[in-house]
Structures are given as structure tokens and as C-alpha cells.
């Protein structure tokens, strides 16, 4: 990843039939970056991708590509290629003909095209599939063909619209690693759309969390996971306990009726805040050693850890722990100050878009 | 589903009674003489100038009508597909609505329009324009064919076009194809099965019609359908009528075979029509 801005979306607004899909969106993509647009359905992530691809025209705003305004260019005039969610392979062509499509349009020589097809098929592990019909391929294989068809054109940017959405879990995980490998081998920029937070965390250099047409947070996977800026991000990325509280003073927050030490400063005095505690950051100890006590109300074995719910001061705290505590057991609860994340309560319109899943 | 086999029996009865037996009868009459002996004379009658002329004119008019229907229907179907509004199916309905009316009635209406003192000429003379004498010419028959059979061209093409997903069209553009290239390389080949259906559904009834040529051609223009009709109804010679029918069937089979070959070349993945 370099620091050069490759794509710059400036003040993009888009609405359909009066429904605002994107409201004054500003976003840039750096060269060789793996950028993921992450959010629930209807958050505007796919529309953003389609605006970059040229399949949608923004109502207002500009799309800048390498310093040039490409807002009004047709898709076929742009140096980007797209991998569509449903693969969108041409059913009347073989695998090789599908891959050759863009190169034939560009009137490349036959030798060049054959060479490119062979190389691309090797890259996506589909050697020998040249003459197969796409209809006789599995979903994963079709997706690889779609990727091969896009990358032979040597685009500056590859746009991927939930490309793994239709695949089963195992295949999806394999493909995630393949996409990372591909990105490294090709050395091009990926803009990836998904609603799957795990996919986003695994592959991305940068994650853009979106909700209801607004960008909620932009950051590296580690930033997004460890320092969510608001309750929506915290709730959407991984599991979390989001607790309303009061910021008493620097490095001290009152939640569940008890003062917890934290590391955050600068939220004022006695200000209402949201507090995020990840389930794996809750330590269950003997009742006497805890900051607060509670009772285990449910216990599920998840393989790697136990998932427990602990009732404490009227709040059901989600806990992931490798230690076993039976239902009904009274436990002490401790959280390392570093793991108590403070977030501002929603104030501006941007943040009002936040909807928290209450359970 | 062995137990449900009996459900197919009515269709079997239908097929034997109304398809196989009549076909055998046509072949029987076509290949025998009034005396009962086997002969090819009935088939050879097609070489009589009047019959040959009627068959040639039928082929010509059917071919032109089919082309005209295709040229009218394809852009319309394409526009309807691209409309992307809920009312596009309503527009399709409007275009096929004439099919709900009796086809004889519609043809008679065209007679009224095209007559020498008909509506068209009344309008033309009202504006002091020279009148046209279209009625009882091959052109009148062709207009009747196009009007009657156009919906059969629109529907299959429209259906094949709406089945092409937007993503496929977008993928072509994404890969650098402009609108024309997208049409030639993706939309046309994928809609070709619909075109083949439409062509068959316009060409075959045009080739065999006698009602349209009766009404719009008067007795002045004879199509092969009229010749066959006359053999059965006026001359009362079933042998000649059947023999000429067999010739017509051969021509239909040949044209469908040509289309099927095109369909195969054009669209390996497309559905087979015949």
C-alpha cells in the first residue's frame, strides 16, 4: 500500500425514489490498498461500489480517479473491473471465451490472449478448465473464473461485490486466503464489499464501516475491532457488551452502578457515554476478587471457549472464557482498564443512523 | 412416479387421435390415387405453374413478413426490457391484446381499412393525396400477416431478453464493451433462442395461412394455403390437397432445420426449440 490516493469520492449523494442511499459520502482509496466496505444490507456499500464501477451515477459529488474526474464516464471507459456477486459469467461462452472477452474487445493478438488465459487460470487454480461451460462449474469455480475474467484486463482496481456470499463456509474461508494471495501477487488495489465482519477483518488493510448511507468508522481491522468509535461499530464488528454509563472523570467510568477504571481521558465530567466491553475481555474470578459480582444464567460450549451470560446489577453480560462456571454460580467480574472502551453517545445526525441491536 | 402414469393416458389418446392418425391420413391420401394405387403424382403436381407460383409467393410473403415482424419486434422488446418499470409488463400486454380478438375479425378490419374506398384512402383523399390500391395485392396479405403474427414474435423475444440479468450486461460493459459490442456479443446471442421461437411462430402460420390471403387477397392472389383449401373444399380432391400439404410440410421442416442449426451455432447453452 502506498500513500497515493487512487480513487477519491467527494461529497457523493445518491437517492432512489426519495430514499437517501448515500448522504454526502467522502472516501478515498489508496494505491495497492485492500479496502473493504462493510455494513448491513441497505447501508449503501454496494451503491458506493457501483458508483466507482460506473454502473450508477451519483446525484451530486465527484469520482476522482488518479486525479481525473471520471464521474460521467461509462463503465467501459474506466480502468476498473468488477467481480459480481452472482458471478455474471456469460452462459453462452466457455471458460476461456469468458476470460478472453475483455481482451478480444481490446483487439489483443491471439497469442497474447491465449497466454493470458493460461496464466489467469493458473492463478485461480483452474488449469485445464478452458473449454468447460460455466454452467457445469461449482459456485466456487465460477467465482474463480469471474475473478480471472476481471484480472486479465490488468485493471488498476478490482471491485468485488460480496464475491463469496454464495459460497459455503469452508470454501469461503479458502477463497479469503486466495484473494489475499492474489492481491499480493497482482499488486493492484482491491475494493471489497461485504456484510461479513470476519471476512473484512481477515483480508482488509482498511475497513470502512457503513450504516444507512453514512460512514461510521474508517480504520485498520485492529483499530475497528479494538477502538470502535460508536455503538454501531462495536455491535457490528464481533460480539460486544454495550453498556450505557457515566464518564465520572478521566480514567474512571461508572457502569452497572460501580466505578470502573479505564484508560480513556477527555470525555468531560459526569457525561453520559456508551461503554464497550468485548466478551473475551471479561475475566471471571472468585466473588471476593471481582470489582462487581454476578450470577451465571446460561452456559454454552462453543469449542474454543464457553459462552456465558452473567446477570449483574440488572444487566446480562456476555462472557467468553475458557474457564468453566456452572449456571447459578456466583462469580466476580473484572475487566482490565485497557479493555473498557468509552464512546460518545450519538449526538450528530451522522451518528443518529446508529441502530443498536438490543439483545 | 409409476402410480401417476395413468395421468398421461388422455394425452396419449389426444396424440394418437388428433395428431398421429390425421398425419397418417394425409400421408395416405397424398401418396395414393383415386383408384387406390400408390403414386407420386399428387406430389408432382407442385410443379404445375399455378401451384409452384403459389408456393413461391407463400414462401416469399412469409419470409418478408417474418423479417418485418423481427425488425419491428426486436427493438420494441429491447426497449421494454430496458424500461425497468413495473408497467413494462402492461405494455407487453397491450401489444399482445389483439391476440384476444378473433383473427378473422381483425383481418376483416384490415380489409375495411385497405379497400379502394376504405378508411386509408378516405383519409388520403381528404388531404388531397393520391389514393393507394393495396387491397387484393400481395402487399395487403403481407400487412395482414404482420399484424396477425407480430405478437408471436414480440413475446418470445421479450421473454428471452428479460431473462438476461443486468449483471451480465454490466459485466460486458465492465470488461470494456460499449453498448453496440455488448449487444452483438452478449444480448443478441443470449436472446437468440427467443428469436428462433418467434421466427418459427411467425413463419409457419404465414406459410400455411389461407384465411388472410382469402380476405385481403380476394381471389386474385393465391397462396399455397388457398390452393390446398380449394382442393379439399371446392375440387373435392383429397389426394391432390394432401400431396401438396406434404410438400408444404417438407418446406417447413427444412426451414426449421436451418434455424435449429443456426441456434446451435449461435447459442451453445440456449434451449432447443425443436
Short description:
The complex is a heterodimer of chains A (359) and B (274). Chain A has 359 residues and is α+β, with helices and mostly antiparallel strands.
What class do helices, strands and sheet pairing of chain B give?
Answer: mainly alpha
* Mean pLDDT metric of chain A: 89
Using the coordinates above, name the CATH class of the largest domain in chain A: Alpha Beta
Instruction: Find the biggest chain interface.
Output: A-B, 26 and 22 residues
What CATH architecture of chain B would you give?
Orthogonal Bundle
Shape of chain A: elongated
Number of helical elements of chain B: 12
Please compute the radius of gyration of chain A using only Cα atoms.
24 Å
Uncertain segments of chain A of ≥5 residues (pLDDT<50)?
351-359
Structural class of chain A: alpha+beta
What is the name of the CATH superfamily of the largest domain in chain A? P-loop containing nucleotide triphosphate hydrolases
Textual characterization of the structure:
The complex is a heterodimer of chains A (359) and B (274). With 359 residues, chain A is of the alpha+beta class. Chain A folds into 2 domains: 5-226, Rossmann fold (3-Layer(aba) Sandwich), CATH 3.40.50.300; 231-352, Beta Barrel (OB fold (Dihydrolipoamide Acetyltransferase, E2P)). Chain A is 25% helix and 35% strand. Chain A has helices spanning 45-53, 95-105, 110-123, 139-151, 169-186, 197-203, 221-226, 231-236, 349-352, and strands at residues 5-16, 19-30, 34-38, 60-65, 68-69, 80-83, 157-161, 189-194, 206-211, 214-219, 241-249, 252-255, 258-261, 271-277, 282-285, 292-301, 306-312, 315-321, 330-335, 341-344. In chain A, strand 12 (252-255) and strand 13 (258-261) form a beta hairpin. Chain B has 274 residues and is an all-alpha fold. Chain B has a single domain (31-266), classed as MetI-like fold. Helices cover 73% and strands 0% of the residues of chain B. Chain B has helices at residues 9-30, 41-44, 49-83, 88-96, 103-114, 119-126, 138-162, 166-174, 179-208, 211-217, 224-233, 238-266. At the A-B interface, strand 6 and helix 2 of A face helix 8 and helix 9 of B.
Amino acid at each position: 500500500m502506498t500513500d497515493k490516493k487512487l480513487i477519491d469520492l467527494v461529497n457523493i449523494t445518491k437517492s432512489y425514489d426519495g430514499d437517501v442511499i448515500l448522504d454526502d459520502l467522502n472516501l478515498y482509496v489508496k494505491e495497492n490498498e485492500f479496502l473493504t466496505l462493510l455494513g448491513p444490507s441497505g447501508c449503501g456499500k454496494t451503491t458506493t461500489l457501483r458508483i466507482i464501477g460506473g454502473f450508477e451515477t451519483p446525484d451530486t459529488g465527484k469520482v476522482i480517479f488518479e486525479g481525473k474526474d471520471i464521474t460521467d464516464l461509462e463503465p467501459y471507459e474506466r480502468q476498473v473491473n468488477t467481480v459480481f456477486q452472482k458471478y455474471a459469467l456469460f452462459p453462452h461462452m466457455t471458460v476461456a471465451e469468458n476470460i478472453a472477452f475483455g481482451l478480444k474487445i481490446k483487439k489483443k493478438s491471439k497469442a497474447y490472449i491465449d497466454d493470458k488465459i493460461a496464466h489467469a487460470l493458473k492463478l485461480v487454480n483452474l488449469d485445464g478448465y478452458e473449454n468447460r461451460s460455466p454452467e457445469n462449474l461449482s459456485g466456487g469455480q465460477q467465482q474463480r473464473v469471474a475473478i480471472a475474467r476481471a484480472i486479465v484486463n490488468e485493471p488498476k482496481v478490482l471491485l468485488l461485490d460480496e464475491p463469496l456470499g454464495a459460497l459455503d463456509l469452508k470454501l469461503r474461508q479458502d477463497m479469503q486466503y486466495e484473494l489475499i494471495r492474489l492481491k499480493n501477487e497482482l499488486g493492484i488495489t482491491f475494493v471489497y464489499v461485504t456484510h461479513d465482519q470476519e471476512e473484512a477483518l481477515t483480508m482488509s488493510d482498511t475497513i470502512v464501516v457503513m450504516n444507512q448511507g453514512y460512514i461510521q468508522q474508517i480504520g485498520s481491522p485492529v483499530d475497528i475491532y479494538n477502538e470502535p468509535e460508536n455503538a454501531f461499530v462495536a455491535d457490528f464488528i464481533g460480539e460486544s457488551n454495550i453498556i450505557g454509563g457515566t464518564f465520572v472523570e478521566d480514567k474512571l467510568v461508572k457502569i452497572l452502578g460501580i466505578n470502573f477504571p479505564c484508560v480513556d481521558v477527555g470525555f468531560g465530567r459526569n457525561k453520559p457515554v456508551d461503554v464497550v466491553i468485548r466478551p473475551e475481555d471479561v475475566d471471571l474470578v472468585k466473588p471476593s476478587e471481582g470489582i462487581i459480582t454476578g450470577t451465571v444464567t446460561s452456559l454454552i460450549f462453543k469449542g474454543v471457549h464457553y459462552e456465558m451470560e452473567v446477570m449483574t446489577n440488572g444487566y446480562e453480560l456476555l462472557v467468553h472464557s475458557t474457564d468453566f462456571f456452572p449456571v447459578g454460580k456466583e462469580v466476580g467480574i473484572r475487566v482490565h482498564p485497557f479493555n473498557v472502551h468509552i464512546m460518545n453517545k450519538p449526538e450528530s445526525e451522522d451518528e443518529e443512523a446508529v441502530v443498536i441491536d438490543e439483545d | 412416479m409409476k402410480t401417476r402414469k395413468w395421468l398421461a393416458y388422455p394425452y396419449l389418446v389426444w396424440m394418437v387421435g388428433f395428431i398421429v392418425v390425421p398425419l397418417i391420413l394425409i400421408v395416405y391420401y397424398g401418396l395414393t390415387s383415386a383408384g387406390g394405387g400408390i403414386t407420386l403424382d399428387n406430389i408432382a403436381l407442385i410443379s404445375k405453374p399455378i401451384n409452384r407460383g403459389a408456393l413461391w409467393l407463400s414462401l416469399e410473403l412469409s419470409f418478408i413478413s417474418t423479417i418485418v415482424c423481427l425488425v419491428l419486434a426486436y427493438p420494441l422488446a429491447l426497449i421494454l426490457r430496458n424500461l425497468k418499470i413495473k408497467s413494462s409488463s402492461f405494455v407487453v400486454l397491450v401489444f399482445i391484446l389483439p391476440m384476444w380478438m378473433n383473427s378473422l375479425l381483425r383481418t376483416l378490419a384490415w380489409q375495411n381499412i385497405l379497400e379502394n374506398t376504405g378508411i386509408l384512402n378516405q383519409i388520403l383523399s381528404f388531404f388531397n393525396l393520391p389514393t393507394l390500391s393495396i387491397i387484393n395485392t400481395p402487399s395487403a396479405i403481407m400487412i395482414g400477416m404482420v399484424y396477425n403474427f407480430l405478437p408471436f414474435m414480440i413475446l418470445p423475444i421479450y421473454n428471452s431478453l428479460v431473462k438476461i440479468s443486468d449483471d451480465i450486461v454490466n459485466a460486458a460493459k465492465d470488461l470494456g464493451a460499449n453498448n453496440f459490442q455488448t449487444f452483438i456479443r452478449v444480448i443478441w446471442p443470449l436472446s437468440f433462442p427467443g428469436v428462433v421461437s418467434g421466427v418459427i411462430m411467425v413463419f409457419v402460420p404465414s406459410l400455411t395461412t389461407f384465411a388472410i390471403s382469402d380476405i385481403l387477397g380476394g381471389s386474385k392472389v393465391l397462396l399455397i394455403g388457398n390452393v390446398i383449401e380449394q382442393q379439399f373444399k371446392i375440387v373435392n380432391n383429397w389426394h391432390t390437397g394432401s400431396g401438396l400439404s406434404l410438400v408444404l410440410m417438407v418446406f417447413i421442416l427444412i426451414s426449421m432445420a436451418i434455424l435449429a442449426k443456426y441456434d446451435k451455432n449461435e447459442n451453445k447453452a440456449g434451449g432447443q426449440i425443436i
